[in-house]
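Deliverable D5.2: sample structural annotation.
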Amino acid sequence: MSFETYIARRYFKSGRFFINVSTWITIIGVTLGVATVCFVMSMHNGFETEVRNRLLGTTSHISIFPFRGALIEDYNGLVSKLEKIDGVVAASPFIYYKVAISSASEGDGIVVRGIEPELEQKTADISKNIIAGQYSFARTIIDGDSIPGILMGNGLAERLAVSVGDPVVLYSLRGEDLRTNSRPRVAKFYVSGIFETGMYEFDAQLAYISLQSAQHLFKTGDAVTAVHLKLRDIYLAEMLSPVIDSALGHTYDVVPWYELHKNLFTWIAIEKKILFLGFILIVIVAAFSIISTLVMLTMEKRAEIGILKTIGTTPAAIRRIFVYKGLLIGMIGVVTGWGIALFATAIQNHYRLISLPADIYFIDYLPIETHPFDFLVAGALTFVICLLAALYPANQAARLSVIDVIRQ
């Protein structure tokens, strides 16, 4: 232990009552600042990860759309071609349109996705999210008619007041000539399963039917509206998108997940940066307490500083003593703040004490995910702020004149 560090630790433990209280208040301020910054960053990390996982569990990693709203006719050949590309785990075709739906007592407008159950199971998590019934579109006999199954979100099922086995009717005008007295095509289904993704937007507005039923309902023939892909790693999407586009001869619109949901993830990233800067202000406010505490310590220790200079201590060593005390305050605040943030994170993830309105924030609770990099950045910035805050009183102490001290 160096001479300056030893004196700094002695000064930290000694002093008048008011200065000691001021020191601990300063430490508490730094601690709360660091804990708040780390917790908020972890909150945003968890929110972004949870939203991304739930979105990609439904929409997959890369989507292939035809240009100008056309249809993909040779979708089986396209799926086979895409699955041969290195990094692509699976591909699945689907049809995606809006319809009207009605039950025995309620009606609504929703989005219907027509899928191949076996292929969709490889690219999305819908089969894992079934909470009632089963992942199946098998036909059953209801009132003498053989009708196929439909999967719907639990929010939609509640709004329509239906459960597994209940019949519903879909209405579509897609492909009809609206200039004539055309009527919507009607298709009857029964609820074969109810899923819950945790994303309010999907659970309240999305339903799945078989690809064949969707082709008949929407008059697409043997064609689909898009194909989506599951990759070995979601972060390969940026690298693989131009590769896939080139392999397909630039005849399709290749959209990676971060482009498909660009507005959402851009908003999350910007909000995280703004909140980080805002909460760093808490640490800066605590830094002013460091300045006042060290200035008062300098005034109290004038005699000791004079003695140290008399026995040969250089101004640079005096400066280091006060800087070390400022950094000691910062170190205690950073470590304690990290501990509080980690404890709060564990409590929230285990007990889910903070809930969210699902219709506004997509998910129903606040997930927390800690990233060491965020903690290190918060700690490093806090140390820099504490260092800068300690420089002024340290310079004042170093410039203290021995003659002035003796005269007083």
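Annotation notes: The radius of gyration is 32 Å. The first strand starts at residue 62 and ends at 66.
The annotation will be released with the project's public dataset once the embargo ends.
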